[in-house]
Design brief:
Blueprint: H1 33-41, H2 44-52, E1 58-59, H3 60-66, H4 72-84, E2 88-93, E3 99-104, H5 106-148
Antiparallel strand pairs: 1-3, 2-3
Length: 149
Amino acid sequence: MEEGTSKSPSHCASTVDYGDADPFQWDTREDCQVRQILDRIADKWSLLVIALLENRRLRFTELRREIDGVSQRMLTVTLRSLERDGLVKRTVHPVVPPRVEYELTSLGRTLHATIQSLVTWTEKHQEEIAAARTAYDSRAAQAVDATAS
């Protein structure tokens, strides 16, 4: 086996030397655990579910009502994935009709703090980002006009 090559097929370390590249950067292969976890927790619906479940339990219908644009199927898939990852706890109450509630696990609560930091950063810099988008769109429109002339 070549030196620097992992014996484990799911190992994410790269065998390529990128010099001063960030050693904590995740691998882009599909079998990388870090990538899989980031893909799960960073998707639009998961972020919203985690944010909504801060310090409270919600029923499926309450979550669906709170998350604008999510389909019943997508919310179901998201909740199942978060439950599988140990971030959300699902409780079924034995009543008719069945009442199902969702809440963050202790692991999910630790992630919420990180998500809140991201939201805070976004709120702080939203005007700068809007200005950058406007400037970019203006430059792109000028470039299109220049090539059309």
